[in-house]
Amino acid sequence: MSKTLVIAEKPSVAQDIVRALTPVAGKFDKFEDHFENERYVVTSAVGHLVEIQAPEEFDVKRGKWSFAHLPVIPPRFDLKPVDKTKSRLNAVVKQAKRKDVTALVNACDAGREGELIFRLIEQYAGGAKGTLSKPITRLWLQSMTPQAIRDGFANLRSEQQMQGLADAARSRSEADWLVGINGTRAMTAFNSQGGGFFLTTVGRVQTPTLSLVVEREEKIRKFVSRDYWEIHGTFAAQAGDYLGKWFDPQFKKSDDPEARADRLWNAQAAQQVADAVRGKPAIVTEEAKPSTQASPLLFDLTSLQREANGKFGFSAKTTLALAQALYERHKALTYPRTDSRALPEDYLPTTRQTFEMLANSGMGHLAPFARQALDNSYVRPTRRVFDNSKVSDHFAIIPTTQAPHGLSEAEQKLYDLVVRRFMAVFFPSAEYQITTRISKVEQHSFKTEGKVLIQPGWLAIYGKEAASETEDGKAGDKGQPLVAVQPGEHPLAEQVNPKGLKTKPPARYSEATLLGAMESAGKQIDDEELRSAMQEKGLGTPATRAAIIEGLLSEKYMLREGRELIPTAKAFQLMTLLRGLEVNELCKAELTGEWEYKLAQMERGELPRASFMQQIAAMTERMVKKAKEYDRDTIPGDYARLATPCPNCGGVVKENYRRYACIGKDGGEGCGFSFGKSPAGRTFETAEADALLRDKRIGPLEGFRSKAGWPFTAEVAIVRDDEAPGRYKLEFDFGDDKAEEGSSAPAEFTDASLGPCPLCGSEVHEHGSNYVCSRAVPTPAHPTPSCSFKSGKIILQQPIERAQMEKLLATGKTDLLDKFISNRTRRAFKAFLAWDKDAGKVNFEFEQRDSKYPPRKTAAAKTGAAAKTTAAAKKAPAKKAARKTSTAAGKTPSPALAAVIGDAPVTRPEAVKKLWEYIRAHNLQDPQDKRQIVADDKLRAVLGQDRIGMFGLAGVLGAHLA
Predict the structure, then answer these.
(1) Model confidence over 303-312: pLDDT tens digits?
(2) What three-state secondary structure class fits 234?
(3) 411-425, 592-606, 886-900 — which is least confidently predicted?
(4) Which helix (H) or strand (E) holds 302?
(5) 715 strand-pairing partners
(6) Does residue 873 register a pLDDT over 50?
(7) Which of 41, 39, 44, 76 is nearest to 57 (CA)?
(8) What sign results for the dihedral spanned by CA atoms 110, 116, 121, 122?
(9) Neighbouring-strand partners of residue 286
(10) Stretch 256-275: mean pLDDT, rounded?
């Protein structure tokens, strides 16, 4: 019997579909990856299982990113599985290819991304043909109630009806790939022309978002604070005192954005007003009117992230992770990755069930309000809450009918936030009495505002927080009740004083305000059609905005300081480049608006997909062409001047796009001194460049990248260039040489001792980029070093704080440190640093974990184990003895090696160690790259070459140890 395969986007939706279909289609059997009955097979993805990629013959791997290979505009796109979900993809494809499955139902989320997820899976399952050639229909759901699901199956949409949406989904995905890949490679190629690898990522959403942060920072830096004065008065009435603030009733808005009705720009004028009214009676007029305040709407993901950031300081990424855990693991919240703030119109019964659960739960701080809502029939249909037209792929985030248990503190905070908002939206509006009092003294007016809460309504749910509970988490109007003024009474202006203040620059973005700016980016667009297209879109989607912000942080375009997001020099450099190249489409939200407008046309069948993709290809080619043709040294920008003068001529050192260069004392040609702004792909902040020029050394700094693209940490020094007398160059110092210890100037320690040296018991101090024994470097008291203890302040990119080194010296081991980066795999790992007495140095010690599973024994191992035991036992003592003798005796060095390390027998590790002692003693490391060894005559006889990498040393010793 033929069956229909239903593919949902998430396992939870697949389960909902099975529950809804069981009464009408029969019971389903549950298998590992699907459900099945006589009519249907129901399975699910877990989001995107397949992603697009350029065909192998058209793609260029990293390391060969150059203008010669750009632009990359493949004639078609191949597909590749998402690594993390490959097993799930295989399970879905297996069901799709079944011979008894004769039709498919796309039950992924009702939207563009849901359409794309299904279409890519179906194409991948079709193999070389690109399709399974099985009929496809579309289940379109905005509500997940059983009846809504059954109604959806009764009204499945045809593949032809969904073709426009499918075309728009593919086009958006491919256009993002073309712009992101070509933009990133073109800007990286442009910035890497001088050598090295300067990764410069750009994207349709990422770069306009960064532009918002950079433009705000530019306004802050250019802001010139102005003095202004307010006039505050205390008025004495019979019932008591009240405060008032002077204002100009004739004030009208002007071109001055800082002008306000209650500001004066002249101290003398402010003092004159204060003197004129002080001690004089006022004529009082009052206007009182009632006011109501409705509760905020239900949460979508962005508003939840903003609220959680403002209240608890949670990052957008943290909030999403918590909401996802409450949805997946605890089943306590509905699907969080939503941009809707309303519920489906058939969701009222489920809403009442949720209130019943809350009212009967053990959550004492929430249950009484849920009971109050039920007893007073607050839960009723309202277009503000239940509106199908305002529900997109998913509805608003609300609690489910399942009471949660075992929540962490952070999960409980977020759950409470959602529950309070959910209940509040059904409660009555808060009612206020707002009074505006005008006290007129002579010709001068003072305003006093009072606000009295008459009925708390929904604010009762928030208790003490009610005064500041508003939609955006900002402080509300905290006006206080006013003392009464009797009819005909003239209160005296007893104390009247001007208050000097300064205008403030705009605030930096926090994650909450940046999420809001991303959400409303379309409102800043002048073009009406583009603004309409972006009205519900903004920059990114609720599901991707947190990842966009985290990506900008990880690429070091922004830093997080407290709750503020601060753009780095790398961000300013990127914006300078894009503006200079006139690649404005990557800087502004208009690009997203234009795409959304055309994709909406495509969804309606008004714009062919081929036409849109031709436009994207043309834009990509233009962007790459601009970068290819532009001269790096002529990119205009608002460049900084350093405070430290040129070390050659004392002239001014000014920034340009690539370098900091001397422009002479009068801003002319300069003496030729300069140094690069972005060595190894890391851009200096202006303050760092100034410190480097002043002190000739800075660091250790993180964020550098090797030519192969791997990150590394190093100090940077300005040194004289021996090949160009009078010139300077930048040099990396990895902290692995003896420059500090062998310096002609004795070390003088100014810091407190960290503890006793584990080798000799002397004091350990900070010295350059290391922690060293006080007897390991020349000092006035001990000119000749007698100890070798040294440990880096940064090891495999993990900073080693003083407190950790103190702990190691006191106890033998640090805390578990979690930011080590393997040089081989480039992956992070955790380890303790511990003193290894046998090796005489600091080594890694890894966390001991109980094995969850015993070692697996193969059948062959079991069978042959007994037979081998006897023979092995006989051979083992002889082998062990031979190995011990060989190790103890060592091997005789060849004459060439003996000339370097002596002729005593040595093991290979001992030979390597002695070889390094010779190399360091004779200063044979390449000063440009400490990992390269430059051989002298003796060493050349051993190596057989003039240069060798440090990891190649051990390899050449075998031939020299007999």
Answers:
(1) 999 999 989 9
(2) strand
(3) 886-900
(4) helix 301-312
(5) 733
(6) no
(7) 76
(8) positive
(9) 437
(10) 94
pLDDT at 466 over 80: no
Amino acid (one-letter) located at 781: A
Sequence-ordered list of residues with C-beta below 8 angstroms from that of 797, at least 6 positions apart, any chain = 702, 711, 712, 713, 819, 820, 821
Query: Is 80 exceeded by the pLDDT of residue 386?
Result: yes
For tokens 């890949």, name the residue.
181
Q: What is the pLDDT of residue 669?
A: 77
Q: What is the residue whose two structure tokens read 């009762």? A: 460
Strand extents, DSSP E, 633-706: 653-655, 659-662, 674-676, 697-705
Give residue-wise pLDDT tens across range 103-149.
Answer: 999 999 888 888 999 999 999 999 888 889 999 999 998 777 788 89
Listing DSSP states for 322-358 in one string gives HHHHHHHTS--B--------SB-TT-HHHHHHHHHHH
Tell me which residue has tokens 């390390």. Answer: 901
**Which residues have CB under 8 Å from 552's CB, separation 6+?**
206, 209, 210, 213, 558, 571
Joined tokens for residue 729: 């160059």
Instruction: At 116, give phi and psi (nearest 5°).
Output: -65, -45
Alpha carbons 156 and 136: distance in angstroms, whole number: 10
What gap in Å lies between CA 571 and CA 569, rounded to an integer?
5
Alpha-carbon distance of 475 to 311, in angstroms, equals 11
Task: Say whether 216 sits in a helix, a strand or coil.
Answer: helix
For residue 841 the two structure tokens come to: 């140095």
Interval 270-310: pLDDT, tens: 999 999 999 999 999 999 899 999 999 999 998 999 999 98
Alpha helices in 6-145 (DSSP H): 11-25, 86-96, 112-125
Residue 501, CA distances (Å) to 228, 266, 449, 498, 856 in order: 5, 11, 21, 10, 74
Task: Indicate which residues carry an active-site annotation.
Answer: 335
Cβ-Cβ contacts under 8 Å for 308 (sequence gap 6 or more) = 314, 318, 319, 322, 413, 414, 417
Is 673 within 8 Å of 696 (Cβ atoms)?
A: no
pLDDT of residue 888: 44
The answer on pLDDT for 823 being more than 60 is no
Output phi, psi for 369, to 5 deg: -70, -35
Count CB-CB contacts under 10 A for residue 668.
10
> Where do the H-state alpha helices sit in 37-111?
86-96
Residue 523, both tokens: 């409102």
Confidence of residue 423 (pLDDT cuts 50, 70, 90): very high
